[in-house]
Specification:
This protein has 109 residues and is of the alpha+beta class. It has 3 helices and 4 strands, in the order ααβαβββ.
Length: 109
């Protein structure tokens, strides 16, 4: 059990903990695998970045809110490009303490 105690930093919130980051990444990987299975059937699902859309959202995440991925290939992680720097992000977690998540839209084109 000592190893799990090390995942939580003293004085940090659980959202900022190593455990939360790992759980979020597992969730995202599972979600992307499910989307890939749907894509194989011809239903193409496009990831859309979501924020809490409140005063705590950083400028980077705010710029991605409700936006489809800039770069998306089936079987690979989607990427969003921050226009101010050209840096690629995604999928959430974008940074320490990030509260963002992905939704999906069906591509009917």
């Amino acid at each position: 059990m000592e190893w799990i105690k090390g995942l939580f930093k003293r004085g940090s919130t659980s959202r900022e903990s190593g455990l939360n980051k790992e759980l979020t990444n597992v969730h995202i990987e599972t979600e992307l695998a499910q989307v890939q299975e749907l894509n194989k059937t011809g239903v193409i699902m496009i990831p859309v970045w979501q924020t809490c859309n409140d005063s705590l959202v950083c400028d980077i995440c705010k710029s991605f809110h409700d936006k489809r991925a800039d770069i998306y290939e089936v079987g690979k992680r989607p990427k969003w490009i921050y226009k101010k720097t050209g840096k690629e992000y995604g999928p959430p977690l974008c940074h320490e303490g990030c509260r963002c998540w992905l939704n999906y839209e069906a591509d009917i084109n």
